[in-house]
Amino acid sequence: MRFLSSILFTLFTTSSTFAQEQKLQQLRASPSQQAQAQAHNTQQHRYLNAREEEKGVFVVELSSFTTEDDDQNEHRQRQLHDQRRSLIETNSCKLYQEDIYYHVGPEDQGNGSEDKWACTFENYYDGNSGTSSPYPHTVDIEGYNIKQSLKQANAISGKSYLHWSPNTNDVSIDRMNTKLTINVDIATSATIWIDSPTPIITRTTTNPNNIFNRRSLQLPVQPQQTLTTGDKKTLVIRVVGNGIGPAASRQQLYEEIFGAGKSLKSQMSQCSGDKLTIEPFSGPTGGALNAYIDGGVVELRITTNPNGKTDKQMENDSNAAAAYVFGRLYEQFDLVLFAMPPGIRPGFAAYAYIGSPFSYYSDTSIEDVMVQMHEVGHNLGLQHAGQGAEEYGDKSGYMGYSSTIDPRMCYNAANNYQLGWYSQDSIRPTASDGYGGTFTISGVAGYNKNDQTKFVSLRLEQENLKSSYYIGYNWAFGANTETQEDANKLIIVQKAGDASASEISWKKAVLSVGESYVIDNYDGSGRYVNVTFARLDDVDAVVDVIPEALPSVSPSSSPIGVPSSNPIDVPSSEPSILPSVSPVTDPPTQFNSWESTWESTVICDEASIEFNIQTDWKPKEISWRLTEKETNTVIFRVNKGDITSVYTSVKTSLCLEYDKKYRFKMWDESKNGLNGGYITGNITGTPGYFEAYYEDDPSRSIFKIKGDFGRKKSTLFIPTRPTPSPTPLPTLPPIA
């Protein structure tokens, strides 16, 4: 009697061209080599049998822990016990946030959505199951106040590791090896901790004669980073369990993920401005059979019956199978989408791990671009977009949720800032070096990479409160035509943590033209910040961000001191010299507040530099910005429309650090620079210019650039200390 059931894996590749078939033949081993490999595998793994049944079809028999229906099977129980012991003795696993969306219906046990933590033994090797490649074995985490404990420990999905001491009873794993329970409070435990050490590969066997004894091989792992730009090598695996598979065929899955119509590839490309491309993987793989993939979609047939199985049971069986056929997935692919069969309980639509390449879709859910973009968004590090009390409530972008199939929309302002696909800016309105101003914000479809005066996402940073507000214009056009709510409105969202943090964003306000939103006690400053959707400039939103003015300082009481006596010195005589010129009685020229020379009242111990802009006849078209080169931090800026007086010298003095690199950048809306222009008739005005010099020595010029620079001009400079004058040598007396 055979005590171990087998998983039968059949890989169907898509049709190949003649050249690809030749390449396949080169990759395949000869029959004698296959026989040798099979004999070797049989010696090493008692329950492994692999063969190439026909061209493009790979058959693998692999023992499994989860396919045997008889829970009382003694041999199976021993296997489960050995696996459980080896997992515990690994003493660490990698933490992932898992975001899962459930089906809700009379036959389902789901409850809508759930955010939970899971832990992955990244390179688990099980000699009994016959896998020749380590695979990621994932378990759910339960325990006392687990979410809060991991948050307090600053656990980061995909980066942090959970550790426990050897021989501790504070960690246990259930009998199906799909759930890890922490039996103590992590915050006070001396046996459990979180950090980021090097993970290991652990091989396990109950055969004492096997050359791979438990924990005998420990190798550092360097998984491929999940980035938000570039070409993504993508693999779609259609999982068929015991003859039960998802509704879509392999060809349909190709169209859904990589097709020219509404697909993951086309929508991601449009939403990212072609910064991220979903590419179907084609080429050889590193598995036991050197399988060649053509077209990015494969089918994996296993004998595990999905009916009644949990998501972790099916996930781990599928990963073990894929690891044997293709090798380590995360080393070869940037994204792996599993199209799972129906029948898994509780019934779910899809789930993904933040910062991981893996996402899982139940049956027909993978056919919806809404679900695809949402789950891959998690892979890219994004969290949900909420509104009110609903974590999925912000339906303006993909990280919320909509029941509409295949809507054409993108992500919200916080997501866009985190992804880094578009022009963006960050300001601190109430900080000592902060400012408000007027900003032009484009919708995603209006993004122009050549126009750095406009932003797709504007961040209002709060340093003290450790959260930020993000402003975006939800223009319903192009890739965002079918946004599910708040079309053509200004949307303000708030997200905790820094810009790259995987935190939920919460919609705070939706503004039409002329409406404002007031952020009270901004960053704990006691001052408010007012955000106003001022107007539309063609298809862009013009937004005013105005912090509350600082209160004027007045004496707390009348002076208490009085002179002790009358002054003792008086003028000896009348002044002998009178003014030769009468005082000027004409009223002073009125300047815009930006146009008057700005002088710092703070003593500058570094480089005091004056920037002088000589305007032409259209000063309102000019804008400029000074940033720190390495961090791209904005030091000072003048927005379009701030300068209004023609043919005027506008000076700004700033205190900058010596030996630090800065970038000065100027734009002209008419794309002709400070070229002078026409005053009346055919009389040409004087061209303008811009320059910078040291305020204490104007002869030390940093740069001076003529006004005919076209649309924009950028220059880098580094403030340098003045060269000290040489000390004169003392004059020696004549030698007698």
From TrEMBL:
Signal peptide residues on this chain, from the entry's feature table: 1-19
The superkingdom listed in its UniProt entry is Eukaryota
Q: Which SUPFAM superfamilies match?
A: Metalloproteases ('zincins'), catalytic domain
Q: What are the alphabetically sorted keywords of the record?
A: Signal
Which Pfam families does the entry link to? Peptidase_M11
Q: Does the keyword Ribonucleoprotein apply?
A: no
The record's listing under InterPro entries reads: Peptidase_M11
Q: Where is the Peptidase M11 gametolysin domain?
A: 311-422
Q: What is this protein called?
A: Peptidase M11 gametolysin domain-containing protein
Q: Organism source for this protein?
A: Fragilariopsis cylindrus CCMP1102
